[in-house]
Structure formats: C-alpha cells, structure tokens
Amino acid sequence: MLRGPPLTDKSVVGVPRRTGRRVVLRALLVLLCIVVAMLCAAEFLLRVTDFTQAPVSDGTYGVYRFDAELGWSAAPHSASQTTSWTRTISSQHNSLGVRER
C-alpha cells in the first residue's frame, strides 16, 4: 500500500482551493471599508459646512426677479454695471422693469 500525503483541500500545485474565495472576500471587505470611510468623510464635511442656514431669498437675483408667469425678468428700479476687459456697461430699469439705457 502506497502512503502519500494526507488528502487535504489543496490543489495540485499546493495552493488551497479556497484561496480564490478569500481573496475576493478580502477585496470586497476592503472596498466596503473604503466606501464607509468616504461616506463618513462626506458626512463630516457636510456637517462642518452646514448648508441648513442658507439665506432666504426674496425672489431676486441681482437686478432680476422670478415671476411665476413670466419667468425671470428685470426688477423695477434696478441698476447694474458690468466691467469687462475693454469696456464698462451700465444699465437701469424703470418702474416697469424695462431697460431705459
């Protein structure tokens, strides 16, 4: 009777068959830890910045206001001045919100 090594859960080259499963499970565990760490970092960042106390807008944005029927239009009696590299543009709106000059 031939006596050889005991029958185990090893393949021909001596590497356990369950090694592939362990590698996959370890990789999934590392991925899960990374995702949890990123979510914790995002939660911390959002709590530090605290966007809950955003200023309440009166519906205007600069010289424009939002109307439910018209959409965005110029606010009455508003004025603006825009400066670019080569010129400055000034505009004023009358009581109707129409640009006069």
Overall description:
The protein is rod-shaped and about 105 Å long. It has 101 residues and is of the alpha+beta class. Strand 2 (64-67) and strand 3 (71-74) form a beta hairpin. The protein is built from one helix and five strands, in the order H-E-E-E-E-E.
Strand content: 15-25%
Total E-strand runs: 5
* Cα Rg: 34 Å
How many angstroms does the end-to-end distance come to? 109 Å
Largest sheet: 3 strands, antiparallel
Number of helices: 1
Strand order of the largest sheet: 1-2-3
Fraction of residues in H or I helices: 25-40%
Structural class: alpha+beta
| Structural shape | rod-shaped
Low-confidence stretches: none
**Helix-strand pattern:** HEEEEE
Write down the overall mean pLDDT.
79
Features:
101 residues; alpha+beta; 20% strand; two-stranded antiparallel sheet; 5 strands; three-stranded antiparallel β-sheet
Describe the structure in brief:
With 101 residues, the protein is of the alpha+beta class. Helices cover 31% and strands 20% of the residues.
Secondary-structure topology with pairs:
Blueprint (H helix, E strand, L loop, with lengths): L18 H31 L10 E2 L2 E4 L3 E4 L4 E5 L4 E5 L9
